[in-house]
Write a structure and sequence with these properties.
heterodimer; A: 487 residues; alpha+beta; 5-stranded antiparallel β-sheet; 14 helices; rod-shaped; B: 226 residues; alpha/beta; 5-stranded parallel β-sheet; 4-stranded antiparallel β-sheet; 12 strands; 38% helix; elongated
């Protein structure tokens, strides 16, 4: 599981907090219980000692030692109750000492005599008596005849220790099991509550400018996720409106501009074919027709750019072998270079594939080569390079032509920008070639870099995301089905 | 041959009709989609030229209704819309050809002729124009019996010109047939190739066959004939 996912983090926090709370609770309960049990034991031992003093030892002077011994054995039977009782006279002589209990929880003979603990209420002491620990309490009793006794009572500590240990065990086992259950439950809970978000993500990744009419799934739960989905849907709706606006606009523009152009062209062509004309009129008509041709090219290219910029609408996504494409385009334009004695050379890495629109990518090459040939003097050099660099494909066209001025360089992708206004108008371009290259590269998630020096030579590099090797075959079936579209 | 032109732009309809009539076609014009549909069901046409943006009933709907009537009549779409999706949806609706405005009339004429002579076209393997001879099987060109060596592109260009001999072909038409649409709009590649072709084909003879029609394009024809 991704450690940064909401699901992991929420569960980890929740489990951590719950664990800490359980630990705190367990410790408090354990400590409280242990104190309570100890205190209870002490009180019972002290109480017993006091009773022995008041009810038995008070009459020792009158009824004799044997009476006390018998009474103690009978009423307390310490051997059966796993208790320890020892009564010591002032002179150190032991009046009574119980023997080891029947259950063998301690060995009474191992308990050492108390030292100097003659006043009432001294703290309990623990003695390890062979078989097990014993907790002892003692108090001094002064009989009515003035005789002083040290009464010690004790009990096997094992009972309390056992009880505390079983509680410790219960907590040590119970808390992790409980925590584990809570984490599992939490994971399921978080997963369930994040499920709509996962679906929203999945659907959002599917929605492109082509399928902008689709919407995210909304589960009517009234919670934050529903609100998120609803507001995302409203955002997509606004995007859809914007995209529709753009495509409606370009459709309107194409209609509004192309219809008059069609009429102009048609009428002038009809005029040109109506003979006889004097040469001068024919020349004028021809001029007008050439300008109409240029105007319609500009309209077409503006529309191409605005569509490309509006998103990937109309862009095919099929594997394209960039090297083959470059060679093909260059070969088809070879004569243009030959005319100016420009030497064309190639450095093509094999099997460089990108995902894209064959026709548009070829247009990139044609535009770049056209520029390079146009702005390179007779006898110049021109190189086409295709290479793969990490996850990018580099397509480079470099020449040793006139180069681009430093101040012109940042503007060359702007529409209708001409570095050398007087010169390029006569060469018949539309001033949109590099803008188209830029827009096509952007629509393919790539970019264009230009390097040029004023002394001459320009290098244009188009960087496109490389299609990982081996994936070009995966989509080759699609290529056949979409053939009619590219017609 | 009778052609129905459904086009709401009166001036476009006018010059298209004029041009087609000059080429000896009978042309009916209507400016409305619904009316066009009635024309199609009332008369026997050999071809329909259909605009997409029409008042009343739009072009695609007209096309669908024509095809719903089980009519095999060829339909050429003539429109200012050039989106790929427009093209695809109209071809799917049963269009036979698609031409984007603005267009050269010569191109419309070539396409109309292509649609009207559908079916098995008799493509002879050799085309002749005066003393120029092009053999499609051997991909060989001879002028006055002498062989001319051409590059592949030069050959395709000459073949396209000769198979449309006498007709003016616009640069766009030549680009789309001999190169592809990615060359559209930028280069003077056609002019350069025509120049080279002329050097090889026309410079060796006194009779020039390749002609430039200023502002329109190129044509190959024998002007010595009346």
């Amino acid at each position: 599981m991704n450690a940064r996912s909401l699901r992991f983090r929420m569960t980890a926090w929740y489990a951590g907090l719950l664990g800490a709370a359980l630990l705190l609770f367990g410790t408090t309960v354990y400590l409280g219980l242990s104190r309570h049990l100890n205190r209870q034991m002490n009180e019972s031992l002290v109480g017993q000692a006091r009773t022995i003093g008041q009810e038995l030892l008070a009459y020792v002077g009158a009824r004799g030692d044997q009476y006390a011994v018998t009474e103690m054995n009978e009423s307390y039977s310490p051997e059966i109750n796993a208790r320890f009782i020892r009564v010591t006279r002032q002179n150190g002589k032991v009046l009574y000492r119980s023997s080891s209990p029947h259950n063998g929880s301690f060995d009474a003979s191992q308990i050492p005599p108390a030292k100097g603990a003659e006043q009432e209420g001294f703290p309990p002491r623990f003695v390890n008596a062979a078989a097990g620990p014993v907790v002892l309490q003692g108090l001094t009793y002064v009989a009515p005849n003035g005789e002083r006794f040290l009464i010690e009572t004790g009990a096997a500590y094992q009972l309390i220790a056992d009880e505390l240990r079983s509680i410790r065990l219960a907590f040590a086992l119970g808390i992790p099991v409980f925590l584990l259950g809570a984490v599992a439950g939490g994971l399921i809970l978080v997963k369930n509550s994040l499920q709509p978000i996962r679906e929203i993500t999945k659907q959002a990744e599917r929605i492109s400018s082509e399928s902008i009419g689709e919407r995210l799934p909304v589960v009517r739960t009234g919670d934050e996720v529903e609100r998120l989905a609803l507001s995302l849907n409203r955002m997509i709706e606004r995007l859809e409106e914007a995209i529709q606006h753009i495509s409606r606009f370009s459709a309107d523009v194409s209609h509004e501009l192309r219809t008059p152009l069609t009429i102009l062209q048609g009428e002038l062509e009809a005029m040109a074919s109506h003979r006889p004309h004097d040469l001068e009129s024919l020349e004028m008509i021809g001029n007008a027709l050439e300008e109409i041709d240029r105007l319609s090219k500009i309209v077409n290219q503006l529309l191409i750019i605005s569509r490309l910029d509006a998103g990937q609408a109309g862009i095919e996504r099929l594997p394209v072998n960039l090297g083959d494409l470059a060679l093909d385009a260059a070969e088809q334009m070879r004569l243009l270079a030959d005319e100016k004695d420009i030497v064309m050379s190639y450095a093509i890495e094999p099997n460089i594939f990108v995902l894209g629109d064959h026709l548009r990518l070829k247009q990139v090459l044609v535009n770049l080569l056209d520029n390079a040939i146009k702005y390179t003097a007779d006898g110049g050099r021109l190189e086409v390079r295709v290479s793969g660099q990490r996850e990018f494909a580099h397509l480079t066209v470099s020449d040793n032509g006139i180069g681009i001025d430093r101040e012109a360089l940042p503007h060359i992708f702007e529409r209708f920008y001409r570095a050398d206004k007087a010169r390029s108008r006569t060469s018949g371009g539309t001033g949109l070639g590099l803008s188209i290259v830029n827009s096509i590269a952007a629509a393919h998630d790539g970019h264009v870099a230009v390097r040029s020096s004023e002394r001459g030579g320009t290098t244009v590099t188009v960087v496109l995301p490389l299609l990982p090797r081996g994936q070009e075959q995966l989509c080759s079936k699609k290529e056949m089905t979409s053939e009619p579209i590219s017609r | 041959m009778r052609i129905l032109l459904i086009e709401d732009e009166v001036k476009v309809a006018a010059f298209v009709k004029r041009g087609l009539v000059a080429d000896r076609y009978a042309v009916d014009v209507t400016h409305d989609g619904k009316e066009g549909l009635e024309f199609v069901s009332s008369f026997q046409y050999d071809l329909v030229i259909l605009d997409l943006m029409l008042p009343g009933l739009d072009g695609t709907s007209v096309l669908r209704r024509i095809r719903a009537g089980d009519s095999k009549i060829p339909v050429l779409i003539l429109t200012a819309r050039d989106g790929v999706r427009d093209k695809v949806s109209n071809f799917e609706a049963g269009a036979d050809d698609y031409l984007t405005k603005p267009f050269a009339f010569a191109e419309l004429l070539v396409r109309v002729k292509a649609l009207l002579r559908r079916g098995p076209v008799n493509r002879s393997s050799t085309i002749r124009l005066r003393d120029l001879e092009l053999d499609r099987l051997l991909q060989q060109v001879k002028r006055n019996g002498k062989r001319i060596e051409l590059t592949t592109k030069e050959y395709s260009l000459l073949e396209y010109l000769m198979s449309n001999a006498g007709r003016v072909l616009s640069r766009n038409m030549i680009i789309e047939h001999v190169w592809d649409a990615s060359f559209d709009g930028l280069t003077n590649v056609v002019d350069v190739y025509i120049r080279h072709l002329r050097k090889k084909v026309d410079d060796i003879s006194d009779c020039k066959l390749i002609h430039t029609v200023r502002g329109v394009g190129y044509a190959i024809r024998d002007e010595s004939e009346p």
